[in-house]
């Protein structure tokens, strides 16, 4: 089967007429997903204000970031499966409500402990709503429209990463050091309320009751899939926690790294349980057969490696602009604006053409990413000797924005093309879990390498070292993409 026919069939050979409300549904999904993802990056520039405003310790500040990342990653797959089983629209609304309520709690936090609890809960809300977005795009869109929908999804991801620091810096500048950081949380509240209202108005209702047959495009999954697999959810949740925790709290104790082998053992236990659960005639949390599908396995590795490397770019750029060159948080955020714009346009462009070009478009995107990394290092080193202004980063980082749009949304479409709709939420959540693990590990390792190098060199050289590490990871992603491209060429698919 060609890539084009596979994407058009959605892995289920669905031929039903598309739901006329699908674009309104997508709009609600993207608003909420953008809100949840921007909360990852917007907080970075608010940390100094939070520390001074609440008298928080360095450990407290670390947990403002780590707590959100942990709970977000832990609940993703279980939440995706819950949507597959109980209906994605309902879980989505619950997730947005939890996220919005916890944003209020964070914005009104009287102390660091309260703020960190709110951030834990906020991560749960984000983990609940995000897999439903992927699952509902799979459910409501077919063919080229699905690629276009994932293009818009990729735009939301790319813009949220780049625009978060800019928006955070602007809000803090307008609100002041005492109020500004609170507004970075409270800004979510009106967005969340609007998303809930529109979801209740626009999302289709499941019509399953005695004598009433559910419509084909209902958000209610098939009867045979009604199994939450709680043991599988717990095993995978603790496995993700064990794998993530050492990287988000690496300074706690050297013994914390013992959690890594524990996490690996828990993953193995989860796989054994899922196989046993399926043999007993139940529907497992994740259909492990999807990993035998080359498109899903390769695409998941690519996106994990991509986030392992590229997410650190914006952390390093913010540190370099502020600590290395003495710019304000707002000025540091400005260099990401062109990148965000190009990311939005390139994601839409690539998503609309993935049916035609297939994996080739991802390969090109990764090559553009490597060019963006190399040219950024060149600007930083030339700036050190007075041959280039740091504001040339506006141009070089634009290539990274283009790459982000060209890689993420087409890869999402290709990776999920052959996944059955009954597992769309949990399979999409597997990809997002890979992103979360990649992000946490990548930021921890790359920033540690940069700070270690600062002990014997200056910021430009440290930046070059950090970007070189990122480039090595992107090269690994490129190698997997090329292998997948050759496989598709041999099998006659795109």
TrEMBL record:
Kinase keyword on record: no
Gene3D superfamilies assigned to the protein according to its UniProt record, in alphabetical order: MFS general substrate transporter like domains (1.20.1250.20), Multidrug resistance protein D (1.20.1720.10)
InterPro entries according to UniProt: MFS, MFS_dom, MFS_trans_sf
PROSITE patterns, per database record: MFS
UniProtKB keywords: Membrane, Transmembrane, Transmembrane helix
Membrane topology: Multi-pass membrane protein
Cross-referenced Pfam families: MFS_1 (PF07690)
Boundaries of every Major facilitator superfamily (MFS) profile domain copy: 25-488
Main localization (coarse): membrane
Membrane spanning stretches: 25-49, 61-79, 91-111, 149-173, 179-203, 230-248, 254-274, 295-320, 332-350, 362-385, 391-408, 437-456, 462-485
Location of this chain's protein in the cell: Cell membrane
Protein name (database record): MFS transporter
Lineage summary: Bacteria, Bacillati, Actinomycetota, Actinomycetes, Micrococcales
